[in-house]
Amino acid sequence: MGENEHIRVRVKFFAAPREALGTDEMEIEIPAGSTVRDLIDRLRREHPVLDSYTRFLSVAVNRAYVGMGTELRDGDVVACLPPVGGG
Amino acid sequence: MGENEHIRVRVKFFAAPREALGTDEMEIEIPAGSTVRDLIDRLRREHPVLDSYTRFLSVAVNRAYVGMGTELRDGDVVACLPPVGGG
Amino acid sequence: MKRFQITTDPLSVDDVTARAAHPAAGAVTTFVGLARGETDGREVRYLEYEAYPDMAERQMRQIGDEIRDRWPTILETAIVHRIGRLQIGQVIVVIAVSSAHRQDVFSATHYAIDRLKQIVPIWKKEVFTDGEEWRSEGVDEQGHGS
Amino acid sequence: MKRFQITTDPLSVDDVTARAAHPAAGAVTTFVGLARGETDGREVRYLEYEAYPDMAERQMRQIGDEIRDRWPTILETAIVHRIGRLQIGQVIVVIAVSSAHRQDVFSATHYAIDRLKQIVPIWKKEVFTDGEEWRSEGVDEQGHGS
Question: Which candidate, A11, B70, C20, C123, has a CA 20 to 30 Å from the CA of C97?
């Protein structure tokens, strides 16, 4: 891929950050080679309201938990998961 | 109570000994002062078919487990309980 | 609705769960005993359960008291045991234990079924294609330990 | 009948017990989570549950796999979690674990609810008379540990 290539990912939000943001999903274009951490940093810059939720955020890509260093691919579904509270 | 006084107790049978005996209940007259052990010995003599079941028999009087030395009183309900198998 | 009962009717786990209801309950654990179609490799056709009902209900109530003594966090215990003929796969017994939180409900329910098998006057007969046998945990029909 | 499911429908313990059915099963343990009307002394009016359903069902299936690895005696695991608005006293989640005998079902069911609270993407909002709060075990709304 060239230096200026971009990929598109779908980002899902739940619970408190979803309410703070006012939306449960957005499409984002990011440079090819971006990691989950790059994406989260970008989201924090563009949506400062997310700031207080990112400390304990877990992230899933295509329905599986991943680490912050995971490189994203075009078409990935990235879920921002605050601490869970089922049961 | 005089030496020749008698009491009547109701004896209940369950499961294997009930089937061997062919009845689930009998009224028995025994001398006043008889213990549970006296009653069981008497039953074994009069109903040898019970013999193979008495080794592991527990006894309840008026719905509560009792020891073999317990003295019986007139009107008691004595239950002969083979090893239980609920659940 | 009795919390401790011997019955000839089919059992429902929801029904027994409701019998252990309590306004402060946040967790209920149930134990469900099912009629198995096999014992020691032998095919069981059906089971026959018999009880001394009055005493059995009294003993089950005692198990509820013992649980409350051992685990003060437990709110309610309910035990319903079916008797009569049971087909393979049918529910024999349901125990339900409620508490505000989940910490002690598993131990208490485990204790309840262990104690039921020790002190509650209920008997099980397994009926095979070629005979039948009264069964107790650890003691066979003739009363010999196994 | 799915063994692992997120649903908006009311739950039945009998239904989830049936989802863990197995021809060799002789014992089923269930865990039933109920909506509590009080948290830290504050009155809760009702609860709102939200999930990431696809991933939640996948994670619940993983819990079933983990249980089979840890306790080879376990035959089946079923987990059904309700989402949407839940009134106080209603059933939030039912877990059922089956086995031939009772020895491991309690530990396995306990493990299942502990794991569900760790790895399944489901969130709970408590709605009070004077506000509301997203709740996680050990972490409050702002993400601070408690």
Answer: C123
